[in-house]
User: What shape does this take?
Amino acid sequence: MDEQLLPISAQDVRNAAERIKGAVIHTPTNHSKTLSAITGADLYLKFEIFQFTAAYKERGALNRLLSLPQGTKGVIAASAGNHAQGISYHAGRLGIPATIVMPEGTPFNKVKRTEELGARVVLKGSDFEAATKFAYELANTENLTFIHPFDDTLVMAGQGTVGLEMLEDVPDLDTLVVPIGGGGLISGIATIAKSINPNIRIVGVQTEAFPAMKETIDGLSLDGNNISIAEGIAVNNPGEKTRVVVKELVDEIVTVTERQIEAAIVAIMEIEKVIVEGAGAISLGAVMQYPEKFEGRKVGMVLSGGNIDSRLLASAIMRGMARDGRLARLRITMMDQPGALAKVTAIVATVGANVIEMRHHREFGAISLKQTEMELVIEAKDQEHAMRLVTALEAGGFKVDYAKTV
Assistant: This one.
């Protein structure tokens, strides 16, 4: 398709880059030796988590704000995440009144953070769609300019500056792996990347829970369950403008399991020593889940955001340890007599494992009255280490049922 027939052009992205220069960070694109060795691809990571609001969304928000005509009364957006913070931060910096509509039940920390950045927060609606509907109504009532999180050409062009920077810093990338929710980021990146290098491969990534863009482009019905740790791309209705660009310029869209996203979050944290949210980790999740698609290629991926709920992060870490065999649950059957518990703990100490949790069951269960059960959650170096503990306990006369905790 002729670029002129698409909603945005490469020149739009370059114009956005000039417009926002100095007000957003030109984040680094760094090579990861360890992740490259693990995946078999030559991986370069774009650290958008280093933006002030810890997400790329600032780029499109600022490009849109800088394009407003003089005398604009204020702006409004519907978001409970990174778009809200990008609008709030840059609108406040520019002296533009901002209103953010969030669904009722939005976590307090997100509301507080957005208010701290200078926006008025209105809680309305049971979900994002209801909040968006009310935001449009409030925009009409109060004469505010609505800024869509992805289906806006200026927002799309602003997000495309991510890809422009990646290819300026690492010109010979042959593949870009980009998360997709509504499609704003990948539309902008694909537009500029294909202009610079028509042969570059653009792979979009969605969670299996929200595969709306893949369903739209590929004509599929994938029945996502709408429960995802990748909240930043939890979108059921992709943009009208963005889907045009995706259909024309994106080579493939893949979906990634929730467990793979969790594993990617933990891998990035442990290897790169940075925190990413689910949407920020999903590109690595795709490379881990489909290694044959990326092996031997020079791959750029966007760590798009780092705003993850602390409890979700803690759960992801613990579940990751369990998947690796570093956490295990042991159910130990023993005679109910003095010294039995001490013998178990002595074996654990000898093997060098660490007890995280212990439960002793006498009253419940179907075992003999002369026996008791103990449940241990232990930390080990790896699964082989955990199995050495199981073997030692069995050699000590105990019956052991072993299971990873997830």
About this structure: The mean pLDDT is 91. The longest helix spans residues 153-169. The chain has three domains: 3-55+152-320, 74-143, 325-404. The chain is about 45% helix and 20% strand.
